[in-house]
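Dear all,

This email documents one entry for the complex benchmark we are building for the journal club exercise. For each entry we list the sequence lines for every component of the assembly. Then comes the predicted three-dimensional structure of the complex as a token string, followed by one or two observations. Please use this as the template for your own entries, and keep the labels exactly as they appear.
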Amino acid sequence: MNIVILAAGQGKRMKSALPKVLQPLAGKPLLAHVLETALALAPKAEPIVVIGHGAQQVQAFLAHLANLDERFSKVKTVLQKEQKGTGHALLQALPKLNPGAPTLVLYGDVPLCSKETLNTLARLSDGAVGLLTHRMENPYGYGRIVRDVDNNVQAIVEEKDANPAIRSIQEINTGIMVLPTEQLGKWLKGIKAKNAQGEYYLTDVITMAVKAGVPVRSAQAADDYEILGVNNRAQLAELERVLQTQIANVLLENGVTLFDPDRIDVRGELRCGKDVWIDVGCVFEGIVTLADQVRIGPYCVIKDTHIAEGTAIEAFSHLDGAKIGPANRIGPYARIRPGAELASDVHIGNFVEVKNSKIASQSKANHLAYVGDSIVGSRVNIGAGTITCNYDGVNKHQTVIEDDVFIGSDTQLVAPVKVGKGATLGAGTTLTKDAPPGKLTVSRAKQISIEWQRPTKVKSVLPKAKKIARK
Ligand code: UD1
Ligand code: MG
């Protein structure tokens, strides 16, 4: 089967510098959703994307996709320099089509049509034209399916070219269709732009097929949302909710506890083990894995992170590019940044930031700390207000904290620096040289106490401020 995805249109109503087909739905451009479905169809096909508006951006995105995932390297593009209509768009792809196989036409801005629906439509294609049609309460704006008394499809008439009788038809053209490729070339070349919009309408091939005696059959989508297109922000938001509901339902079916399935957003892939709990308002981005018995508190943002079994992430925590070991307790209000690797039973508390650091098992940083570019051993206690000074304004340096170290509150470790096994750093220490193992290292000024008298209140000797008179 040939698959052509029409994606050259501008999408003016999105009011965006980003081409419409690159607008994200559940964190992924519309076009990526369509391509994924196209690549999952049987028989296999190499999709051709007709690009035009924002062609460079679309092409760059396709190259990026192919880099990430080999499946997408099969996708080809053709350029439609001027957008003269859907018929003209398909004509650009004609030289690349295999005449021996039917051609499935998809739209780059109809992202949720399922592979089951498309396979059903494709099965109609045996020498015939197959149309995916839909009944709508309010069909305004769509092309209407005109049938004869025997219910055979005769034509598709666009809203702008329709008379009141045709406008009252509620069966619409979704735009998705399958066509016999051998005849298609002749039909496409025969299309005239004699209509209200002065465009070459692909829908005109239907009357040509009827004239040529080629049967026109129709199929319907299993679900209403499958045929919805994105023309403006409201439609994009509506589809986002549809997709998020679907994702939430799959999670529920797989045994994940969602405290409110309407309040979770998955913008990528969320893989969950058994007995995972997710509280409200969480956003998952990229690839996130939550192992058995992981609990995510409310309003967490978690991106490209693996969380091992039994770990609890408390409310308002932000994790990105991290590997979190088992039985950790993270947050509330923790920030775990790329390159953080925490072993088992690690505690990271409120307002603690960890970046590009390995923390071994049973270590704790419970309050207000920054651990950056560090290697932290086991059973280390990092006191409140401790900061690794990893950046000298030009370069980053490493801090090494060995096993069983105790770091008193409000300590600065000026990297590169090393704290030996079992060392204690007194509160308030500014560590600029390595601390030897087993010893107490302190760098604060000696505490003194002196006799003194608190000042008492006297009449002010300062000149009085002038009052500004109001007019
Ligand atoms: C089209 C159909 C209409 C159908 C509706 C469903 C035609 C003439 N009309 O109308 O019957 O009910 O879709 O949504 O086909 N595109 C190009 N190049 C162009 C023009 C369009 O690639 O020159 C692409 C667009 O990017 C889009 C798709 O084709 O993905 C549909 O184009 P659009 O202009 O939205 O068509 P409609 O007027 O909505
Ligand atoms: Mg449209």
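Observations: The chain has two domains: 2-227, 233-441. Residues 229, 231 surround magnesium ion (ligand 2) (CB under 6 Å).
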